[in-house]
């Protein structure tokens, strides 16, 4: 333990064994070192962006047990949006100053690949400065399987149709035994990493996520982080890591595991200490509440995500995020917490200091 504390003090890279040992430290010791690292990277800045989430369909070929969003017997309200309906949303959100649309769909086997991709070109043709963040690795894997397209072909079409960056969805937990239990049939951990590597090799950036608080163990979270760290060493393409707190309402997973605030903050702090090569750690308020996301800024996080406007995936599982949040709420909370609110673009270029 003494050696671990010395390495933390000196900000040296942690081994796998040392990363596992972090769980033995108390929350405030972890917070001390995570906040030191966060302050060295970002000072008192807390980042957010003005974005709009759009989820064009919840009709899904996959049956992930953790998911309450896709249309199944616990969510008997399937929907499917046309390109015209999506563009109406984009038109409206542009009027409010939105700078990013974040588009993630379920895996609808009754559509064409053109339905998935052509909307991006429609957005970019009309609003060339709008950042399009779209198609998770899970969606890319679905298009690969459904339409017999290689990953490379899907990525080439993403670039052709105007996708600017990739979200981190579909990562869940990389351990394949856990994946078999919670999202069997979905993109494998190996292929999730392969897809992001291919995207990075095109000179593009992406986010990385980790879904925790279901049936995984702490050791699985460390394994997940270390695999991301290894890929980041190779490509440098991840611009943020986002630990997503699992939402249990309307889920098919049965678990007695309790993920309280301390466990969430420990996970964020450990992510900051282990992921020494990913600059930004996001406390995604939609999965942990805005209040706890603000506390997380003292435990290694430096980002809150964005205003969102409408959120369908996490709120289907019980999160209180369906209507997004207001810009003024972000700014006021950040200031009252003795941090500096920084509006950013999707690639962490600073746009405005409040």
Q: Could you state the order of secondary-structure elements as H and E? A: HHHEEHEHEHHHHEHEHHHEHHEE
Span of the ends, CA to CA: 41 Å
Radius of gyration from the alpha-carbon trace, in angstroms: 19 Å
- Tally of helical segments: 15
Low-confidence sequence ranges: 311-322
Helix residue percentage: 40-55%
Q: Order of strands in the sheet with the most strands?
A: 7-1-8-9
Main beta sheet, described?
4 strands, mixed
Structural class: alpha/beta
Overall strand count:
9
Beta-strand content? 5-15%
Mean residue pLDDT: 90
* Shape summary: globular
How would you sum up this structure, described in words?
By secondary structure, the chain is an alpha/beta fold. Helix content is 44%, strand content 13%. The chain has 15 helices and nine strands. The strands form three sheets. The protein has a four-stranded mixed β-sheet with strand order 7-1-8-9, covered by helices on one side. It has a three-stranded parallel β-sheet with strand order 2-3-4, with helices on one face. Strands 5-6 form a two-stranded parallel ribbon. Strand 3, helix 5 and strand 4 form a beta-alpha-beta unit. The longest helix has 18 residues. It starts with a helix and ends with a strand. About 3% of the residues have low confidence.
């Amino acid at each position: 333990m003494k050696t671990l504390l010395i390495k933390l003090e000196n900000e040296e890279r942690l081994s796998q064994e040392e990363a596992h040992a972090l769980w033995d430290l108390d929350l405030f010791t972890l917070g001390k070192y995570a906040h030191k690292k966060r302050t060295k990277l970002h000072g008192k800045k807390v980042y957010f962006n003005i974005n709009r989430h759009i989820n064009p369909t919840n009709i899904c070929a996959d049956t992930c047990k953790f998911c309450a969003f896709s249309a199944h017997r616990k969510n008997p309200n399937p929907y499917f949006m046309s390109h015209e309906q999506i563009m109406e949303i984009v038109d409206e959100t542009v009027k409010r100053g939105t700078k990013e649309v974040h588009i993630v769909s379920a895996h609808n086997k009754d559509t064409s690949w053109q339905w998935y991709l052509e909307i991006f070109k429609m957005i970019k043709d009309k609003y060339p400065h709008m950042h399009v963040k779209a198609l998770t690795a899970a969606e890319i894997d679905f298009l690969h399987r459904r339409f017999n397209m290689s990953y490379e072909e899907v990525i080439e079409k993403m670039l052709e149709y105007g996708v600017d960056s990739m979200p981190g969805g579909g990562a869940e937990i990389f351990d394949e035994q856990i994946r078999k239990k919670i999202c069997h049939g979905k993109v494998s951990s190996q292929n999730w990493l392969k897809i992001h590597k291919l995207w990075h090799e095109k000179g593009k950036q992406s986010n990385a996520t980790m879904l925790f608080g279901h049936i995984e163990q702490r050791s699985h979270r460390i394994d997940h982080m270390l695999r991301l760290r290894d890929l980041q060493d190779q490509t440098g393409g991840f611009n943020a890591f986002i630990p997503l707190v699992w939402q249990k309402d309307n889920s098919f997973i049965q678990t007695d595991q309790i993920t309280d605030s301390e466990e969430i903050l420990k996970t964020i702090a450990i992510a900051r200490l282990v992921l020494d090569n990913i600059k930004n750690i996001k406390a995604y308020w939609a999965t942990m509440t805005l209040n706890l996301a603000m506390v997380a800024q003292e435990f290694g996080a430096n980002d809150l995500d964005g205003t969102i406007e409408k959120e369908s995936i996490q709120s289907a599982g019980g999160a209180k995020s369906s209507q997004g949040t207001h810009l003024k709420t972000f700014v006021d909370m950040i200031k009252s917490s003795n941090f500096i609110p920084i509006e950013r673009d999707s690639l962490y270029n600073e746009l405005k200091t409040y």
